[in-house]
Amino acid sequence: MPEVLFKVDLNKPFTEQALVGHNRWHPDIPAIVSVNPGAVFRIECKDWTDGQIGNNDNPNDVKDVDLTVVHVLSGPIHVNGAQPGDILIVDILDVGTLSEYEWGFTGIFAKENGGGFLTEHFPIAQKAIWDIQGIYTKSRHIPDVRFAGIPHPGLIGCAPSHDLLATWNKREADLVATNPNRVPPLAALPNPQNAILGSLKGAEYDRIAQEAARTVPPREHGGNCDIKNLSKGSRIYFPVYVDGAKLSMGDIHFSQGDGEISFCGAIEMAGYIDLHVDIIKGGVAKYGLTNPIFKPGPVEPRYSEYLVFEGISVDEFTGQQYYLDAHVAYRRACLNAIEYFKKFGYTGEQIYLLLGSAPVEGRISGIVDIPNACCTLAVPTAIFEKNVLPT
């Protein structure tokens, strides 16, 4: 087993760990460990909520989750020799559960506390607990379903530079200013409440807590991209913005569908990630990187038969026609799938949870045929332990 460079105690909050990670992005958060290019090591991670969700049947913990705490990240890791303008190569060698935590959860967040892709249709908090058995999972809350997972870090990235951080904060503040009272909000702006910033204390902590970016969205450095195929065997190429790169990760998923549509839509878990790192000097300019790129690994569930649902860019409430709007079209595909599977004895909430957590395939199938974008959602039929095909 690779050396464990960041170990977690699942019975303690993140602020009481032997090594304290962070839940905000800022270039001045100190690294907790240094590694050399070529190193192989293991990083343990708590679940993204820092243990706020319990293995029980009551969704009140999802309803009341404190989102100022998320995401708790393990790191930063200083990679010796990495400088701004380099590319940091990160190989994901393995992702797995911790032996005392072989379960996960999927949640529908309340509209007033995070919401989700279909929050206008499902505004009330709900959750499903999944039992993880090797590569497979089942849930007592969604009967007659069993599937293989595709474990991956939902969130992994390098620290931003001061300039990049300022860019993030300005453009997201400008967006929020267009509709400041929207529920849920248009963006999660810097918030010092419950900020975890590694070993920082005193005036330096106070300064950085006011400036540091929330971890909610993906950005140029990677971050919370929630890409299900970023699994075992993948190689990621990250642009480096600060000395040492300051790599961090967390939000491990046992499985996820494309889009993670219920916001807490993956099967969230605590776990470990085994990594190998290296550097391409001057790689950002050489290869024209703006955002990370990655080469998927060879390990994923292999389903061969799917039921595919189409959606077009027409609003389901008003019938308004949108112009090539992939967001609306994918929402309609998801809603069409939910309505279909309700005919097989499921509730809409159960299928909403399932589409976020099972390895469904989302596609932009047509983006040129005015005025309708066409998005598709492919659901593997083998995940159901009963026939769900039209007959």
UniProtKB/TrEMBL annotation:
<dbReference type="Pfam" id="PF03069">
    <property type="entry name" value="FmdA_AmdA"/>
</dbReference>
<dbReference type="GO" id="GO:0004328">
    <property type="term" value="F:formamidase activity"/>
</dbReference>
<dbReference type="InterPro" id="IPR054833">
    <property type="entry name" value="FormamaseFmdA"/>
</dbReference>
<dbReference type="InterPro" id="IPR004304">
    <property type="entry name" value="FmdA_AmdA"/>
</dbReference>
<protein>
    <submittedName>
        <fullName>Formamidase</fullName>
        <ecNumber>3.5.1.49</ecNumber>
    </submittedName>
</protein>
<keyword id="KW-0378">Hydrolase</keyword>
